[in-house]
Amino acid sequence: MRAPMIVSWMTTNQCNLKCAHCYQDAEEATDKELSTDEGKKMIDEIARAGFKVMIFSGGEPLMRPDIYELVAHAAENGLRPVFGSNGTLITPEVAVRLKEAGACAMGISVDSLVPEKHDKFRGLPNAYDLTMAGIEACRQAGLPFQRWRSAPSRTTCSSSFPSGAASSSRRRRFRCWRTRSCSPTSCARPRRCPST
Questions:
Q1: Neighbours of 42 (CB within 10 A)
Q2: Distances (CA, A) of 9 to 42, 44, 90, 126, 144
Q3: How far apart are alpha carbons 12 and 27 in whole angstroms?
Q4: 178: β partners
Q5: Residue 36 pLDDT > 50, yes or no?
Q6: CB neighbour list of residue 83: distance below 8 Å, 6 or more residues apart
Q7: From CA 97, how far away is CA 113, in angstroms rounded?
Q8: Are residues 83 and 56 in contact, defined by beta-carbon separation less than 8 angstroms?
Q9: SS3 for 168?
Q10: Mean pLDDT, to the nearest integer, of 95-108?
């Protein structure tokens, strides 16, 4: 049997956005979240189990004040720490700290190249600009990143990403551009998704 490769940890339910497709209604932290010490113990167990890649997800994982400590602990245990982030909190300083802590790559959500559509989907008026700034911060820090896009409907796929999307990705030096389907759960149910 092959050793397991990837494990994803929803580090917090706290999030600074109100995304239409969120499958856990992320907003505020809950009392069920692991403490720093509990998180480190779990990381130890994950490493001993043979996993190779540790995804820090959420909510928005960068809202955890101990995230750099947790990333460093994962790296020290031989795991490759990567992120699932909305990118809005990645300042130049944050990008440098993440790289210094041992983060290997950032998965950043960009749901449309049309700023207004991305902002509407993410529930924050300036989300697109903040995300693009986060992407640039990663690039300047030498922290690899890839773009993720949620596609809750065919309309979103066709209208939000025009033919120039791939060339735009190349200009920003994305390592990868992936589309993932939106699961019809929680606030991702069709009746609650904004029109695109």
A1: 15
A2: 10, 13, 19, 27, 20
A3: 9
A4: 148
A5: yes
A6: 55, 56, 57, 61, 62, 98, 103, 105, 106, 107
A7: 28
A8: yes
A9: helix
A10: 97
